[in-house]
Amino acid sequence: MTRKGLSFGNSEQTGSKPKQRKFSKGKVLFWSAAIAATVAIGSFVYSGMPRTVTTTVKGLTEKTADGGDQKYLVQTTSGVFENTDWLFFKTTSSDYQNELVGKEGYKVELSVWGWRWGWKGWYENIHDIKVIGPDEAYMSKSKLEGVLDNLNFMELKTPVNVTPDLVQKIADYDKQHLDVGIVPIIKDGQFTRVGTYDAQPDAYAQRHLKTIVEFLEK
After folding, report:
1. What confidence category does residue 113 fall into, taking pLDDT thresholds of 50, 70 and 90?
2. Nearest Cα to 95, choosing from 65, 46, 129?
3. Three-state secondary-structure class, residue 102
């Protein structure tokens, strides 16, 4: 005698098959959207509002962040910025920090993202760096003289305001001429003279300097 609702024997005897878990198209789309939204929100929270800062480097330090990780800090006349990697959004912090070694007193252009949140120890994070040149108004006289001793340089008849556009054009010129080493000298936010570390004969260096000076004085 058997009771209703009960069955005896294994699945092979009864002909039944084990149930298979199925993922509906709707669930796949839902989880795909959820993951994409998480990445998007995370990147927005991390990055904040991007901006470009033209400032002067005061020093470089390191700080132990939450969890024991070390983060690079760049102290400038416009505040403190961090220089750290974050997932696949940025993986170049060591390269940037190395580029800034020995550049205390140099004017730089920083592309930064994020927010300053003191309670959490957050700073705006550096995503790109352009080293412009020595800041004559900030650098000590002895250090500036040491820099100038290694340069061929020319004075500008009239100082020219430092702008991101001019910084980029000088960098482009430098690359087009096989990195001759153009070094603008800045004072009070203006280009006052232009130098080069070029090891070629003076006539060669002077030709490039004259071209840049004429361009700046237009």
Report:
1. confident
2. 129
3. coil
Domain 47-133: which CATH number of 2.30.22.10, 2.40.50.50, 3.40.50.720, 2.40.240.10:
2.40.50.50
Neighbours of 188 (CB within 10 A): 12
Q: State the DSSP code for 138.
A: T
**CATH, range 150-216:** 3.30.310
- String of DSSP letters for 10-34: -HHHHT---------HHHHHHHHHH
Name the pTM for this structure: 0.69
Residue-level pLDDT at 171: 85
pLDDT tens per residue, range 13-52: 555 555 555 556 666 676 777 776 666 555 555 555 788 9
Strand ranges across the sheet with 152-161:
152-161, 190-196, 182-187
Structure token digits, residue 54: 């033209």
Distance CA 104, CA 135 (A): 9
* Predicted confidence (pLDDT) at residue 137 exceeds the cutoff of 70: yes
